[in-house]
Amino acid sequence: MTDSYDLITLGAGSGGVAASRRAALHGARVAIVEAGRVGGTCVLRGCVPKKLLMYAAQFGDALGQARGYGWSLGEPRFEMARWAAAKAAETARLEGVYRQMLAASGVTLVEGWGRLDGPGRVRVGERVLQAPHVLLATGSAPVRDSVPGIEHCATSNELLDLDRIPPTVAVIGAGYIAVEFASMLARLGSKVALYFRGAQPLRGFDEMLRTAAAAELQAAGVELHPGLVPQRVRRLEGRFLLELGDERVRGFDWVLNATGRRPNTEGLGLEAAGVRVGADGAVAIDAALHTTARGVYAIGDVTNRRNLTPVAIAEGRALADSLFGGTPREVDLSRVPSAVFMLPPIASVGPAEAQARAEGRTLKVFETDFRPMKQAFIGGAERTRIKLLVDAVSDRVLAVHMIGADAPEIVQSLAVALSAGATKADFDRTLAMHPTAAEEFVLLREPVR
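Predicted structure:
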């Protein structure tokens, strides 16, 4: 039996769902194929439950700070099992919402594993779907072969299903996932050690943020081991042994493998269909999201470009508008806001200072480092750091970087200004809102270099 559609989407994560719904809104007949739960990594195993755990860790900080503001409290106790049950209920609710959105949009959900089966054909079990356009939106999955023995360790998927906080934890890696969960677990009661190859965590971020992140992790009690990655991980009598070289071995109750993610391209029949895949498994695309096979497109993490949910959603909607809406357009990835939900959180939009200089930019750099009012009142040590990068020739603000309370909310708003081409003069003539941390962005007057 062959079912005909205008678009077949493989993967019902945020990007695939957004593309499918937008295409259906334009009048296209759409089928979306999903072998697992509807909603994808961000909703079910990533952004959403991760931030819910961040809130849990943040409450621990708030309870401690409350005493400095006159509150008398008993000894707080975090119960991971209660959090995990509430998280499971919330992600189940969200999956239901996603299913309802697809149904309300007229998108046909086909449950099962889909693979390309010739031009314009997708096979799902014994069922064959046919369409002139096929979209790959299968996302990515944790790398499980980066270190010998690491396949026995948990990834972020399993962390979010824990029903207790392990007493001792090793985190291997230094990207978003590693830094976020190291920060959270330390606040929730684990003794955490972070192992990573570089000199600082968060490769690719501005050096100010990387230095500040390392300091804040250490302040939370996280041991940092830069330039050191285990040579092997062994499981022995319920514990994990990290072989660190020179006969050094260290034991932990639990290990988080946060060594990266890999595009989900295996078993999709891409090679036979003429879809070129790189050595890292990423699908090669052009600016219009076309793969090397006629009528096959790809968005989101499966392309391994900017692996952020809003990027996948924007790409999916742009593709649907181009194919079915009569408004061909591309997604501008030059100013993609991003956040790291450690405590305190980090947010950025625009290039790091080193990147901007490598591109030949002449910069004016504005920075400030202060202890916010909330911390100062109780004698807290947590600081806020912000940076503006300004093109010295055009006066245009190129980048905003911040670590501190509410950084993601503040930088998201400032991203609008950068997208609109705001200059430093625009920032200077904007009145401050006092007392706030965000006002510091419009009070920076003299460049530090």
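Summary: The chain is about 30% helix and 25% strand.
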